[in-house]
Every structure is written in structure tokens, then in C-alpha cells.
Amino acid sequence: MKKRDFKVVVIGDSGVGKSTFISALINESLNKVTHVNQHQPIQLPPEMFNHPECNTTLIDTKCQPNQIPEQVKIADVILLMYSIDDDGSCERLKKFWLKELKEKEFKQPIIIVGNKLDLMGVEDDRDYCRIFKVIKQLVKDFSQVEMGIECSSIKFQGIQDVINCAQRSYLYPLAPLYSLVNKTITEGFKKALTRIFRICDRDGDGVWSDQELERFQKKVFKRHLDQSDIAGIKDMIEEELKDDSNKKNYITLQGFMTLQKRGIELMKVQISWTILRFFYYKDDLTLDESLFQDELIFDQEAGQTVELSDIAQQKLKSIFQQFGQTLTQAQFDYIFYPVMYQTSFPLLQQYHPQSQDINLTQWLALWNAFSFFNYKDAYKLLSYIGIDIKMSDAFKEQNKKDSWSSVQKIIERRVFHIAIITKNKQKILEGQFNNISPRITTINSKTYVISIYDELQAEQQIEKRRLSIIDFLMIEPSCSFQTVQLIPITFFYDKISVWNQVYKIIEVLNSQQNIILLLRTFGYSEVQIQQLKQKNSFSIISFTSGIVVLIGLISGGYYYFRYKPFKKTK
């Protein structure tokens, strides 16, 4: 694990021994005798503690009796200290400190530290029964409280253990994974485990075979599992679930979650975090943004678009087929269960005709439409739902739209966006679109997205966007909207069914007639066709020039090697 800078802030009432605690650590770890009312921040030597990957800075605090120190804002972990021999100090934990930290919405892990253990004088109290009684209720009331520990700064008892616990809470925080109150793993952890389980379910059958379990173990922990190890894992799951659903030739998702829960309860939270970080999870259980780095290079200004690749479509098809012939809203929601952010992915109702369930064609159409408008968001969503694929493999670049030769290849595309510009957007939305825009439909394996704009929206959202945003414009005759972009245009009539007019464009696109006639039927004017021909991306002159340069380079290279003597190598 790479080095991580880590700040521990010690807070508590005056007189509980904060500065004495830090003095004891300085004396023990730096071999320096010191004692002051408030220490400056000090960096502790990494080799003295259990987690040398932590560059640990310890910060002392001093403030008014009813004030939270400013240094808490920069803390990674908070050590909240009280005096074991002072009941009033213990009461203040709940009545002031934790109450204030919660109200001010500090989210850092909190460790309760009972100092002055040497003053108790009762040896059998060293078994932590006392600290357990203190934090039992605090854990229920304050989710940030992760543990409690006792020490003696005067006798140097347990002071290094306090720092070790703080480092552990920082590196392997418990709160995002497990609720101490409910004794259950958190919803966020369940989402992450669901994604991980799907990625490692190589055959997509919804369970892990012994081979998939072994491959997971080897991949994450670089360790081989034999049959006795696998049997032991299944026994542990069976003991927790109290059934034998995982003692066959596979492990279910519930069994995998149960295994992680049991590990955390056995104080092995480090194992869970090793798994999570291997699959790019951060401490807040969102995926590291480095996973979504853009690998695609294409000319958006020239109208080049991005579509899902055949590989990505096949993976989406495999997910769908786990549920049968159709997908219900509940199944749709379950597929997206691991997603840890708000997404604008299309609703089922955006597919036309409206239906409570969708089939495979409609499922792929929703993805095609989403990818067309924002492939980066689509890739992020693919990653969250458990599809492990490189961005360059998930998408393919399609033809440009700024030249004659490119436009002629437009029929090769899978996704098209038709924009309708009207004076009365609301009327169409209410009457024919069920108040949902855009709408999505599929004909002959091609996806069509139909959006409704009023004139002002057209000016703001179409004319200022890239050429690739619109493939066809349908403009109501009464509109004054005009565009300088090379987009095919036809009239839209609000008295005629929207879908009848859209289908006429789609029929033309799917016909096999002459390409020039096709383009004219699309709505390209003679002027636009001439402009496209003039902007053709690779002219005869350019081709001829390229050949001349190439011949020159070849000839030059020939004469260079023909007449330049070679030196013998030793």
C-alpha cells in the first residue's frame, strides 16, 4: 500500500491528560523528554507502529470548555479522551462532545480513549469491561464511534495501542461497511459486494462455482484455495445462514455477503477493504474516478459519434437473459442496484410504445440512446453494474457528418437523434408523448431518439452544441428557427401524428434507394449537398500530393542507403 498522510487530532476536556498522552508518545517514540500545556503538531516515526504506510501527524488541542477545537476540521481520525477516574468527564462525552460533533456534521471515525488507567488500582478491570460499558450506548447514539480503549499516559500503558487503533480506523474504516448498532453490513457495502460478485461471475449464471471462488481468491489475495479451504468457507456460510444453500457446487451472492459480515465480526475488516480497493473502491464506497479515464479519440466537431460496441452489447444481453424474456421494473432496478450516484439513464417509460415490461431489443435501445448522448456516463454506469470492460472495447467511433464521403456511410450507424422544433412544445408532450421527452423507439435493429424543443431551447441547446447532437430536424412551418449546420431538415405538422411523421424518416433511412436520392429525401437541400461535397475530407489533389511526398521519401531513402557506406560493427 502506498504512503498515506494521516492526521490524528486529540480532543477532550481540560485536565483529562491530552498533552501528557502526547508527551508520553514523544518520550517513547522519539526518545525525548517533554511536557508542555499544548504541543505543536508532531509527526510520529512510522516504524514504531503497526501500519508504517501511515505518515501519522498527532495534533494536540486546547479550547474553551464548551467549544469544539478548530483542528477537528482537518482530522482523519478523532481521539476523544476522558478521565477514567472522573464520572463527570465520562458524562461529558455524550452530553457535549459527541452531541456537538454530530450537530456540526463531522464524519470522521471517533475513538473513545479512557486515560489515567493507573489511578484505578484494580487489576481485574483491565479486561476492558469498563470501557465496553462506556461505549455501548455511545455506539448506538453516534455512528462515528468505532471503538474504545484505555491507557495510562503516566505509566506508558497502551499509548502505542491507541495510535495503532487510530491508524487501523483510518486505513480500514468500519462505519462504511458495518453497523455496530444493527450488527449488519451497510447498504453501501452490499452494493459494492453485488458489483464485485457480478464481475467475478464469469459465466453469468448468478452464482460462483468453486472455480470462480478460487479465481477470485487468487486474483485478489494471490493465494491458492484447495478443496478443504473451499469446504471450510462453505461451512462458515452455512453456519451463518443456517441452511445448506451454499454447500452445493456454488456460492450465492447472499453467501458472499454473509462471509464478509462474519469476517468483520471476527475483527478482520482489513480483508474486506483489501477486496474493495482491489476493485477500485474509495473509502466512501464510490469507485475511483481514475477507472473512467477517457481513452477515445474522435472528432466531435465534425459530427463523429460514439456507439456501443458488439462486445458491450453482448455483455448487456447476458445480463438481460438472466431474467428471462422480459425485464420488469423491479428487475430493472436490481440491475442498477450497485450504482452509488444519481444517474440520468432513461426510464422504462421513455421507450415507445409505453409498456410496464421491456424486451431485449428495448433494453439495448435504452443503452444505445444513453451512450449516444454521453458515452462517458454510459461507461461509468457499465462499470457500476458489474461489466468489466475497457472503454476502448466498450465503444466504437462512427462516421463523421461534415463531408460527402462520410455522410454517404450514415446508414451504417445504429443510433439516430431526431429533434422536433415547435411553437407549442407542451401541447405535443401532453398529447402524444405522455409528458416524457426524449422518447426512444427501435426499427430494424436501429435506435431512434426523438426529442421535443421549443424555439428558445433550439437556439440554446442545438445551435450552441456540436454537430453530432442532431441527425435530423423537423421544424414546424410557423417557427422562425434556422440553422447554419449541415443537418437535413423537413417540416413538422402538429395536426398529424408525431409518430407517423417520424416513421416516414425512418422508412427512408432503412430503404435501399440511390444514396443521392436518399440524402435529398432525408432533407438535405441541393445547397447543403454541394457544401458537403466541397468539404469532402480527402480530395484528389490531397491524394496526389500525398503520393508525390511518399515517392520522394522512398527515393531519398533508396539513394541514402545505396551510396552511404556501412561501418562494420565490432
Automatic annotation (TrEMBL):
It comes from the Eukaryota. The chain crosses the membrane at residues 538-561. InterPro entries: EF_hand_assoc_2, Sigma_54_int_dom_ATP-bd_1, Small_GTPase, Small_GTPase_Rho. Keywords: Calcium, GTP-binding, Hydrolase, Membrane, Metal-binding, Mitochondrion, Mitochondrion outer membrane, Nucleotide-binding, Repeat, Transmembrane, Transmembrane helix. It is found in: Mitochondrion outer membrane. It is a single-pass type IV membrane protein. One of its GO terms (molecular function) is GTPase activity. Its main location: mitochondrion. GO terms for biological process: small GTPase-mediated signal transduction. Residues 224-310 form the EF hand associated type-2 domain. GO terms for cellular component: mitochondrial outer membrane. PANTHER family: RHO FAMILY GTPASE. Belongs to the mitochondrial Rho GTPase family. This is EF hand associated type-2 domain-containing protein. It comes from Paramecium pentaurelia. The lineage of its organism: Eukaryota, Sar, Alveolata, Ciliophora, Intramacronucleata.
